[in-house]
Amino acid sequence: MAITLKESNDDDLDQVHEINVTPFIDVILVLLIIFMIAAPLATVDVAVDLPTSTAKRQVRPDKPIFVTLQRDNVINLGETPVSREGLGSALDAATQGDKNKRIFLRADKTVSYGNLMQLMNSLRGAGYLKVALVGLESGEAH
C-alpha cells in the first residue's frame, strides 16, 4: 500500500529564497552583551598595594594622569614604564605641556619614604607642583 501525495512527475523542489536571520541576530546580541561586560574587565592596570587614608574623597577629573611607584621602584606613567630621567618629558607629552594639571601619585605601601620623596622631587623638578597622593579609603578616623 503506497500513497502518493503529489500526482505530478516533475522532480523540481520548491526553493525558499528567504533566510531566517533571527538566530543570527540572537547570536550577535549575545556576543555584544558578552563583549560589553568583558571589555572593562580586560583593561590592564598597574598592580600596586596602596595604603589606606582617612581623607575625604576628592572629585577626580575625566582623564586623570597617574604616576605609579611600584614596590620594585619602577615608575609608570599611566600603564607605561618610564625612567626617572624621562619622567618630565613623558609628563609634558601627557599633559600637552600644561604644568597646572594635577598629577595623581600612587605608591606601593612597601616603598620607602626616601624613594617616594625622590619621585616627588623629580615631579617638582619637572615643574609639576599639583600632586595628589592616592590611597585606599579607610572608614576609621584618627
* Helical segment count: 3
CATH architecture of one domain: 2-Layer Sandwich
Sketch the topology as an H/E string, one letter per element: HEEEEHEHEE
CATH class of one domain: Alpha Beta
- Lateral strand order in the biggest sheet: 4-3-2-5-6
What oligomeric arrangement do these chains adopt? single chain
Low-pLDDT sequence parts: none
Classify the secondary structure makeup into a structural class.
Answer: alpha/beta
- CATH names the topology of one domain as Nucleotidyltransferase, domain 5
Number of strand elements: 7
Largest sheet: 5 strands, mixed
Q: Termini distance?
A: 97 Å
Rg calc? 30 Å
Model description:
- This protein is an alpha/beta fold and 142 residues long.
- The protein has a domain at 52-137: Nucleotidyltransferase, domain 5 (2-Layer Sandwich).
- Helix content is 30%, strand content 16%.
- The longest helix has 20 residues, at 22-41.
- The radius of gyration is 30 Å and the shape is elongated.
